[in-house]
Amino acid sequence: RCVMQKVIHWSYLGERAIEIASLSDEPNFYVGLSDFLKRKLILEIEDIYITDHSITVQFKFALSLPVDDLIVLVEGYDHQDDVISNQPVISIPICYDSEFMMDAQHLQKQLNLDFDSLIELHLAGSYRVAMFGFMPGFPYLSGLNDLLSVPRLATPRKRVPKGAVAISNNMCGIYPNTSPGGWNIIGRSPFKLFDECDDPPVRLKLGQAVQFCRISKSEYDAYLGD
User: Fold this and answer.
1) What is the per-residue pLDDT across 121-137, written as a single tens digit (0 to 9) for each?
2) Which residues contact residue 72 at a Cβ distance below 8 angstroms, ignoring those fewer than 6 apart?
3) Residue 185 contacts residue 172 (beta carbons within 8 Å)
4) Model's pTM, two decimal places?
């Protein structure tokens, strides 16, 4: 069971939005709280935005709900982990071939780990979609082993390939499309994260559990050929 921290920190973000932060360390808490508030304030809320440590409530009209009333609602939220558990664990294939593990030498030096240990620790992580950001469909996955915590690259790459799986600080991410980026690349996945023609366009869901599954280079090529 996830318990809310006692002190609620909040701040205005313009006339129509309020951010409430530091409620919990669990991403599913914010997912559940979002659903709870939408049910309670269906006429007042325009949208809700979630990060790994906060929730921002955007109202349809300026000051449509007193802050004290919103805080009372938040304080009354009783989170149960099994509320979100109906989302299936999704398995994402990843190839750690040297061609794809672009920062292998850098990571081994920074973390003082050998190649096999890097892969073993990454595969063993219990990941969950904490938030989306940076670009459409880019998932920030919590649950990265502390032994793999490493800062962003000092100089970001101008081009990170689509499907690159990367780590930075306490997060793991997957690039849904080719773009610039400064995370440490540990592998590549053929899994399609985002397609504007799909409904919904984003394959993963907030709070969803993710497990990486290792594949070979030939298996990677076969995925792309399907």
Assistant:
1) 999 998 989 889 889 99
2) none
3) no
4) 0.79
